[in-house]
Structures are given as structure tokens and as C-alpha cells.
From TrEMBL:
Segments of this protein annotated with the region Disordered: 154-173
Name of this protein: Putative 3-methyladenine DNA glycosylase
Protein family according to the UniProt entry: Belongs to the DNA glycosylase MPG family.
GO molecular function, one term: hydrolase activity, acting on glycosyl bonds
Organism classification: Bacteria, Bacillati, Actinomycetota, Actinomycetes, Kitasatosporales
Superkingdom in the source lineage: Bacteria
Organism field: Streptomyces lavendulocolor
């Protein structure tokens, strides 16, 4: 049985804080995606923090571009990027405005709209795998670049919003290096996840890619 969760939307002030405060505080919250076919709701179980121009692992490390412009604020908006030529990933921008920090949504438990998520994640053997990893999460929720810049604090009619849900107690939150991040940002312990949750994705260290001749 799924426990009752708080349906109050998170205000913009929630996101207008340092990224290392926002990231672990997102665990247990409810992400709502309104699709043309109906709503999908997901309990967030794993996230990663990225601290903009101060963070070698961030897309904004070398400054503002057309691709990463949404990361510079205002807080509470979605930053969606396309990676490896095939996958989308969903982030939530946090404040203060102008500092390009954001939280990558890495994994979650789909609690409403499982049938809709299954149609997009045909390779998932079990429901716990529907959003087990950032690309799988975005696929299950039908997230692509058209949602880049969406205001997640705009109200119940927004395609994306975040509800209070059931915040995870601090003693149930684990932290470690971010998945797949190399270089100077490889050891930052800025990945946060709920201890023992089956929807959390496995950690993978960065593997350098060889350039084609």
C-alpha cells in the first residue's frame, strides 16, 4: 500500500537555495508530468547536484551557451538536454539566479500512470526499472527538448511540477561520487539517493572515450 503524500506544490523559494541543499531535499518528492495521454507521477529516489561555473562536471563550467541558458535561472525551471545522440535527461534549476546550478533527476518510482510509462519503456522487465537512470526517467515521462525551460512552479496546468510528497529523513539519504563524471569533478560526493530503494540506478565510474581517427 502506498502511503498518503502531501500534494502541496513546492514553491519557487524551495529551488532558490544552494544546489547542495536542494538536491538531497528533492528525495521523496513527487514529480508530476502531464502528458497528452494522462498524468504520470514519480517519487524521486536518486539525484545529482551540479554547481555551474564552479563545477568541472557541469555543462555550465565554461559559461553560458544557447544549450545551457536555462541553467542560469530563474530557479524552478526544467533544463533538458540531449546526450549521446539518443537520450534526454531532465534537471531542475536551482538558485540563486545567474549561477547556473541544477539537479539531475536520476531515478524514481513511478506511482501513477505506470501503464503510460510502460508503453515508452518496453524493455523494462519490472516496474522498478521504469525510471531507473536519468535517460530511462526522461523516456518514461515523455521528456524531450520541447520541455526545456518549462516552469515547474507555474501551477497544476504546467507539463511538469513537483509536489511536497514525503521528504526522505536525512538518516536514509546516502551520498557518493556522481555517475560517469570524470576529471576534476569525479570525486565530488554530489550524488544523493535513498538507502536501499530498488529504483536507484547502479553507480558507474567515468570511462574515457576514445576519439575516432
Amino acid at each position: 500500500m502506498i502511503e498518503s503524500t502531501d500534494r502541496t506544490p513546492l514553491p519557487r523559494d524551495f529551488f532558490d537555495r544552494p544546489v547542495l541543499e536542494v538536491a538531497p531535499d528533492l528525495l521523496g518528492r513527487t514529480l508530476v508530468r502531464l502528458t497528452d495521454d494522462g498524468p504520470i507521477e514519480l517519487r524521486l529516489t536518486e539525484v545529482e547536484a551540479y554547481a555551474g561555473e564552479a563545477d568541472p562536471g557541469s555543462h555550465a563550467y565554461r559559461g553560458r551557451t544557447a544549450r545551457n541558458a536555462v541553467m542560469f535561472g530563474p530557479p524552478g525551471h526544467a533544463y533538458v538536454y540531449f546526450t549521446y545522440g539518443m537520450w534526454h535527461c531532465l534537471n531542475l534549476v536551482c538558485g540563486p539566479e545567474g549561477f547556473a546550478s541544477g539537479v539531475l533527476l536520476r531515478a524514481g518510482e513511478v506511482r501513477v500512470g505506470q501503464d503510460l510509462a510502460r508503453k515508452r519503456r518496453l524493455s523494462a522487465r519490472y516496474d522498478k526499472e521504469l525510471a531507473k537512470g536519468p535517460a530511462r526517467l526522461a523516456t518514461a515521462l515523455d521528456v524531450d527538448r520541447t520541455l526545456d525551460g518549462t516552469d515547474a512552479c507555474a501551477g497544476p496546468d504546467s507539463p511538469l511540477s513537483v509536489l511536497t510528497g514525503t521528504p526522505t529523513p536525512p538518516d536514509q539519504v546516502l551520498t557518493g561520487p556522481r555517475t560517469g563524471v570524470g576529471g576534476d569533478g569525479a570525486t565530488h560526493p554530489w550524488r544523493f539517493w535513498i538507502d536501499g530503494d530498488p529504483t536507484v540506478s547502479p553507480y558507474r565510474a567515468h570511462t574515457p572515450r576514445r576519439r575516432r581517427a
